Amino acid sequence: MPRVIRVFVGAVAFAAVGMGLQAAPQPADAPRGRVVVEIPASAGQGPIDGRLLVMFSTRADGEPRFQVNDSPDSQVVFGIDVEQARPGDTLEINASVLGYPLDSLLDIPPGEYTVQALVHKYETFTRADGHVVKLPMDRGEGQQWNRAPGNLYSTPRRVTFDPRAGNPLRLTLDKVIAPIPDPPATKYIRHERILSERLTKFWGREMYLGAHVLLPEGFDTHPEARYPLVINHGHFPYTIDGFRETPPDPNLACEYSARFKWDCYNRTEQEYAHQFYRDWTGPGFPRFLLIEIQHANPYYDDSYAVNSANLGPYGDAITYELIPYLEKKYRGLGAGWARFMYGGSTGGWEAMGVQIKYPDDYNGAYAACPDPIDFRAFTLVDIYADRNAYYTLGPWRRVKRPGYRDYLGKVTTFVEDMNRLELVLGTKGRSGGQWDIWQAVYSPVGADGYPAPIWNKLTGEIDPAVAAYWRDNYDLSHILKRDWDAGLGRKLAGKLHIYVGDMDNYYLNNAVYLVEDFLRSTKNPPFGGEVTYGDRAEHCWNGDPSQPNAVSRLRYAQMFAPKIVQRILKTAPPGADLTSWRY
Is residue 19 located within the same domain as residue 74? Predict the structure, then answer.
């Protein structure tokens, strides 16, 4: 007989009183909402560890697994942890399980919905630090629970659902997400994947780093040339982003961009991607190796490119394993003066963070709209002075902290909501979401082997001890102030360049203001870089005042390439190769 696994989430259920997340009182004999999910015997796999997610959507089109987010249009999701489930078992979510944005199944009004279930699979890691943890390993999709190959999910069904009806809703995990094919190589784009000894040792299993390499025009016809290397840091790339060797598709159906209020924005993207190809291969464009790194890991779609107690030595692995490998294979100059980085958002933090952590190994960072670089402005949270991340606390009231705004200040979600979604998608920091990866990178290891929480996901209460660890190890502003006069400033002079819109959607400009205050005050030596702001510009402004944000974000390489060449010519050591790659 199949086992029925009833999983109650304990502290994640209606111990959520601290957030005001209680279901409406019900008579003792009232039927409780239930969803029963079957793992069919034909699944042929097990035991299964992971996270079961059940989603309800008011929409009749599309799949609910792609309709859950932190916008006002998000559909509903409930989640529980699953351990050692086998084909033939059934899993149950009931009214005690915490959901997003609704608290409980009982809060769903009777009506017609599209429903879907999915199991995000975990695997067991025995790490070098002695901890045994269960985490979702990336499988080529960039740590996306709704797209991860091997995950089980159900065919979407349109049903009439009443949570107080006596019969449970039954779903079957009848589908498996297919593997993702490798991206094709072209004359200009190559793909590399190496086994990392450092990461393999940390995680206790083989771990790889990947990279997409954009070769300069003339690479094959100038075999004597050796090239500078430029890293475009950012989220998981399937291939080189924004580079299209063929003209735009004239038959491409228009897609409207609500973010930019731009008709046919998908066509605009193709137009600028092809223009990048024409610029890159045309006369006069600087010749260098441009790479994008694949470093998805069990917590997120990238590692933030630094060493971390929870993720392992990604910074060392990238700088001392991957980069030398690529430079040797593709004729890089192989020296710190000839290596540069740029990126936006996560990539902006990475460019700046790696430059600070490895000051001699890179010669310039161009950081657009960087994730918080001063934790006194961790979006709108001061993790040192505030007691609670979700609320500004007064003697008689508390005010919710906004999490997202538009350029006029209209707020559409709050910090609490964004964290609530992550908690439903995965306990112990396993959601694959933004707040959880910050915690995984910056926190010490907790007693259970998972990242020590910076705050309670339910209540928002901040842990000062974890905040102090963050400050000493990853608060870039604090590190600059602490170490500038002790020699770090001399190594970074002229290398840091920061750009952000003054109406960044995630309030990232606030941290830049604080960092700028320090950088402008430096004397020993002066910082010698630039900090600029885009008037009313949203996320992710990259320093180009001549174009709207919708366009400038498509021209990062063209924006920063001339700056990189100028920096090389100004700082290259005597005898450096300044000619072979300038053709």
Answer: yes
